[in-house]
Specification:
Blueprint: H1 5-21, E1 27-32, H2 44-58, E2 63-68, H3 76-85, E3 91-95, H4 96-102, H5 118-125, H6 128-134, H7 136-141, E4 143-160, E5 175-178, H8 182-190, E6 194-197, H9 203-209, E7 214-217, H10 219-224, E8 233-249, H11 250-254, H12 258-293, E9 296-299, H13 302-323, H14 328-353
Parallel strand pairs: 1-2, 1-3, 5-6, 5-7, 8-9
Antiparallel strand pairs: 3-8, 4-7, 4-8
Helix pairs in contact: 2-12, 5-14, 8-13
Length: 355
């Protein structure tokens, strides 16, 4: 449950006291996430538990890690602001919308049909190229990038009340609720659907009243929030890949010894790997549940996804360059690297296992 403003201030105020009382012996690293402190329903909390165990062991207790889930310390924007200072909160995990408000280049992650599968997504997000891409967060935000979680499993699925979406033509005439993200609106309109941007709290009501015909989210969310009760059909398209960036205060990070910094970085990388596996397992189980609870379910084949991508990607690029204002060459370099990784993953897998 999200704390009310006064309670959140009390929680934040208590954090430096913890650090101060133990300063002689150790550093305090407080991490905030909006997700529940639950080992089974999200990928972030189990990863953070492993991170805590690794860091505290590798530093012989010099760094003590505390995890604050369930939005205890506020929204993603609130916690990122605290992390920038690094005094009361040292780390947070924030999703695309909040991340883009601090580091506009992250809006490129809204590009449609970026990945065909998790192998490609993980190879891209865990690459040296992407780490270099995210290094700009240090200068622009005073926060250091540690890794990317697959928000809800990454790939999204449509749910709607009208029909099963099997081709791009099936989207024509549908009114789809999107996040309040102009990039998602541009994608939906390019595919022939109308787009109704709404905050999360209004989605169910919009579907019940007919304000929207459908929506898209990760299967984990579609099952957790019982979208089968307000929509009949679901299609796994993966047209958007949701992600969340893990950030740490640069000021705090630079106050650590080299050995402590190494413990933070190497432990974070292992935690990210655990998060990848957990998100894949949760998403797979949730899709199976979707097929049991929705009237009909469908996985869109690669050929139709490619058709949709040919339509949606140019429209998205036009929006992000002309309206959002990102540099066209930088956007093209990003898309080219995604394609390079796609080809490389296939070729390396076949070279190792297919011959």
């Amino acid at each position: 449950m999200i704390l009310k403003p006064l309670a959140r201030l009390v929680a934040l105020a208590a954090l430096p006291l913890v650090a101060a009382t133990s300063q002689a012996q150790s550093q305090e690293m407080a991490i905030a996430t909006i997700l529940p402190e639950d080992m089974s329903n999200n990928e972030v909390y189990p990863a953070l538990i492993q991170f805590k165990n690794l860091v505290e062991t590798r530093t012989n207790g010099e760094i003590t890690v505390s995890i604050f889930g369930n939005s205890q310390l506020g929204s993603e924007v609130d916690t990122a602001r605290e992390v920038q200072g690094g005094r009361t909160l040292q780390s947070t995990i924030i999703t695309t919308g909040a991340m883009s408000s601090y580091y506009p280049d992250y809006q490129m992650m809204t590009a449609p049909f970026l990945f065909d599968n998790w192998r490609q997504a993980w190879s891209f997000f865990d690459s040296e190229w992407f780490a270099d891409f995210m290094s700009g967060t240090v200068e622009q935000t005073d926060m250091r990038y540690l890794g990317t979680f697959d928000d809800g499993g990454g790939f999204v699925a449509f749910t709607n009340n009208e029909r099963l979406i099997e081709t791009v033509e099936d989207l024509e005439g549908l009114n789809i609720r999107t996040e309040e993200n102009p990039g998602h609106v541009a994608i939906m309109r390019s595919l022939g659907a109308s787009a109704t941007p709404l905050p999360w709290g209004e989605v169910i009501t919009a579907l019940e009243t007919g304000l929207a015909d459908g929506q898209f989210n990760a299967p984990v969310l579609n099952t957790t929030f019982n979208f089968h009760e307000v929509t009949d059909y679901t299609t796994l398209t993966g047209h958007v890949y949701n992600s969340a960036a893990w950030l740490v205060s640069e000021e705090w990070f630079q106050s650590l010894t080299e050995e402590q910094q190494e413990a933070i970085v190497t432990s974070a990388r292992e935690a990210i790997a655990i998060g990848h596996g957990m998100s894949g397992a949760l998403a797979t189980a949730s899709w199976e549940e979707s097929c049991e609870t929705f009237k009909e379910c469908y996985i869109m084949p690669p050929e139709e996804r490619a058709r949709m991508a040919e339509i949606a990607t140019p429209a998205w690029r036009e929006w992000i360059v002309n309206d959002f204002g990102l540099d066209g060459d930088r956007v093209d370099a990003f898309l080219e690297e995604v394609e390079r990784v796609r080809v490389d993953v296939i070729e390396s897998d076949m070279a190792a296992y297919g011959h």
